[in-house]
Amino acid sequence: MFILNPKLHKAMKQIVVSQDTKIRLKDFYANPDKYEEVANYTREELHKLSEDILEHSRLRLEEAQEKLWACKKYGVLIVLQGMDTAGKDGTIKHVMSGVNPQGCRVASFKTPTTIEHAHDFLWRHYFELPSRGEIVIFNRSHYENVLVTKVHPEFMEDLPDDLKDPSDKEFWEHRYQDIRAFERHLARNGTLILKFFLHISKSEQKRRLLDRLSNEDKYWKLSPADIKERQYWDQYIDTYDEMLSRTSTEYAPWIIIPANNKKIARALVADTIATAIGNLKINYPEVTKAQINELKKTKIRLEKEQDK
User: Fold this and answer.
1) Which is nearest to 269 in space by CA: 14, 59, 78, 63?
2) Strands, DSSP E only, in the chain?
3) Which of 19, 29, 180, 286 could lock onto 34 through a cystine, CB 3.0 to 4.6 A?
4) Which residue range(s) make up the domain with 119?
5) How confident is the model at residue 199 (pLDDT cuts 50, 70, 90)?
6) How far apart are CA 150 and CA 75, in angstroms?
7) How many domains is the chain built from?
8) Contact 20, 26 (CB under 8 A)
9) Within 13 Å and on the Cβ side, how many CA atoms surround 86?
10) Is the pLDDT of residue 19 over 80?
């Protein structure tokens, strides 16, 4: 059966999580200059390269999105995950700045409502999925249900006691299975899935938090909960290790973006999205010969029309 797999640059291989591979985030660099391909660049050269890639990718993405929207063949789901301050909002702002908003939207999932908690954990995400021709970005996503709820089981949706045992490893394995099946269903029905984990170090998060705390104009970006969650850093890393290992597939792979440098992270995300959408079999709808002739006649009539 046909299933839509994203086609990525071969150069991305070392930051793409292979299916059925157990990974640890400590084996991936948060600082991009640690990777051999860019190790010899100066910081200034890296930033210039990143800006060039980002701008070129935005132009490619603008063209690809126009074709995607015009032909209405596939939908695109982009998933962004990462620790607090990882740069999810900034990535969306800079990467998608040239995209026609008519065919692109962002879905952010906050604390579930009472109604949402009364349903299964995937229920509210169905309403935000992309239609054919549309790009939808999940800023945080269905993965919060195997991340936050694993670190904080008290936040889990309402389940009967005999179905709710967060201490049971099998409970979480069933959730991973549900997510893989959910994404496989989407891919089989023409949704391109791109999942990015914005990987920052604990020291970089501290620097970004202090930067915000030192500038009152940035206070709106913070809440006491953001600082409180930092104490669970190690638990979140362990949880991400397992989640990334158990839910990366050929049809919905996780890409671990070194995000200590925001400019490089945005360039990598932009290039990946533009490449994956550009590799889809999409084009503008074909205009028949009869339609062309009719349009030419319309043009002639319009040119002969007298201005009043």
Assistant:
1) 78
2) 75-82, 104-108, 135-139, 191-199, 254-258
3) 29
4) 10-304
5) very high
6) 30
7) 1
8) no
9) 21
10) yes
